[in-house]
């Protein structure tokens, strides 16, 4: 009956043929070694290798982390990605420019509008389409910002779930549902909209839609106050998050982190402000950055607070856009759609735009045919997840879960 | 009816003719069956309450569909039979045991947890004389038997041969052992005040209405002891915000990651039976037990059982309310809470109440 008692130590390492060993931690250099079973058995200390994911509840999808643990303390984290690889870039080489848009939806499925916009802007730059109807531009901003709120609601809601609070998660999803209803009315789909097309929109705005958006904003603002009362200002929540996963601005910049992850470290960098695309230069809004109110700047809490503040800023932008679109509601949203999409051979365009998760860039090169020669996408989540080892060492498993939650990764965006 | 009565009398007479040992054994078996049944029913009610209360806190309605076609019960609605259906489903589910698990220990663990929980019920007084075993060391017995749960949890974590289970079991052991201390110290205040470990005596000392309840004795020390015990009991129950051992976002499902079907249901039922156990203990020790809050008014017949159940369910409601409001604390913060906050406050309550008694 107690045979297991003495076998346990061996079991822990039995299935781990490859292990990452940290030989020179102080210099920041790590070596990977393949160890024989015998060597693993002689591995000193109380460390054990644990596989977290791809079916773990809080790796937000199919991320797999290989952890070296000493009790509950995390010694090393090695992310393994690729479980959701769908071959987007190669796929895009065999379908026409317009047909790529639905595939862009699937890159970051929580913010499809923003992905579509980034790709469509790149194609428009490629064919030199600069003048679009005002209604199209305003509608793009409204839908993208609505989608940004929806995406941030998922981020803060599941972050609540990671901290162990279930109610904020359902409250966030209740409000997100309202946004999904609005976007469903617009495009017929709840997640993968395929709404923004090259040169225009897939459908005209339905009658009364703008009024419903206004009603949603009026409903949403008090709900956010309620949400903050429940989770953001909770003492346990602040104690849990204020001092962990600290990312200095230097680290964040050197890893190429963008979006709320970068801004949480106090770097004021938002492409909507710094390199405005679409009509973002027409609006008055702030770029929230991490301030370190309860601990060091760049903590998990700062990244969370940036997202909370950004939702309020998005509401501000949508209100201005709703006012801005008023005079142009009679315009035809498909007037500027090119009849024939065949860019000049050798043309190349790179456009980056600010999605809820950071800087998404599309590099498109044409060979003169009606399918792209190459589409390269620069994903924000990939850069954001890369530094997880740096900021989670020495913390506990519970902290690691919060760090993953605060990076707000979408595996579709990492793997593409 | 007269026939039935006569029959019962006859059977009672036959029962009295049986040898004394056999009578005792029959009583024990009957009592155990009643307790197991009552605990299981209470646990099912607890599960239903948890689902409904959490649903209404989250702008949902919770289970609504599973009702029965039985004529009278049909009109209750609100999915009242959902937990029954769940229990039936769990009974017929496949029992999966991991290939590398220690099968005997894996089987034993849920029984130990459930048995330890049920054993706690045997000293709870539900009315005047309505107690299965009127131990003179009842409170001490409860403290001892509730610690037994941790053995089952460690066995479950260990025998599953899963690293997440092991982590959950280690957390649980550390947590339950740490929180025993403030909980027991808080109980000492009650023991000092009443001068008895017998739960019946403790209730008797509080008879006469709401103002006589132990929570109001020696203010503010007994109120302090009440809060210390309530928080510590949350931790011993593995309830949020102290649900570290089964924190699903961190260590999958903790010690019961590798359990399925009825074995898992036994952990689950034990958790809710434990909630009721703690509810009754708190009601008995601090809130007057089975006595009416209005003195002699409504203090006889079936009312004692009603009062103690009502008080227990109020405590359960607060437990559920906290769970769906608060985030989870971290392991080190948990230990901090136990050793640096609750234990000193429990000492303050104990010493303060002692000085008050001497004055």
Features:
heterodimer, A: 416 residues, alpha+beta, Cytochrome-c3 Hydrogenase, chain B, three-stranded antiparallel beta sheet, 10 strands, 15% strand, disordered N terminus, B: 359 residues, mainly alpha, 13 helices, 66% helix
Structural write-up:
The complex is a heterodimer of chains A (416) and B (359). Mean pLDDT of chain A is 83; it is low at 1-39. In chain A, a hairpin with a 2-residue loop joins strand 4 (64-70) and strand 5. With 416 residues, chain A is of the alpha+beta class. Chain A is built from 17 helices and ten strands. Chain A has a single domain (88-415), classed as Cytochrome-c3 Hydrogenase, chain B. In chain A, strands 3-4-5 form a three-stranded antiparallel beta sheet. Chain A has a three-stranded antiparallel beta sheet with strand order 8-9-10. In chain A, strands 1-2 form a two-stranded antiparallel sheet. In chain A, 47% of the residues lie in helices and 15% in strands. Chain B contains 13 helices and no strands. Chain B folds into two domains: 41-92, no CATH class; 104-358, no CATH class. The model of chain B has no long low-confidence stretch (mean pLDDT 83). Chain B has helices at residues 2-17, 20-57, 82-91, 103-121, 138-147, 149-159, 163-194, 199-205, 221-236, 248-251, 261-286, 303-323, 331-358. By secondary structure, chain B is an all-alpha fold. The interface between A and B is large, with 37 and 36 residues.
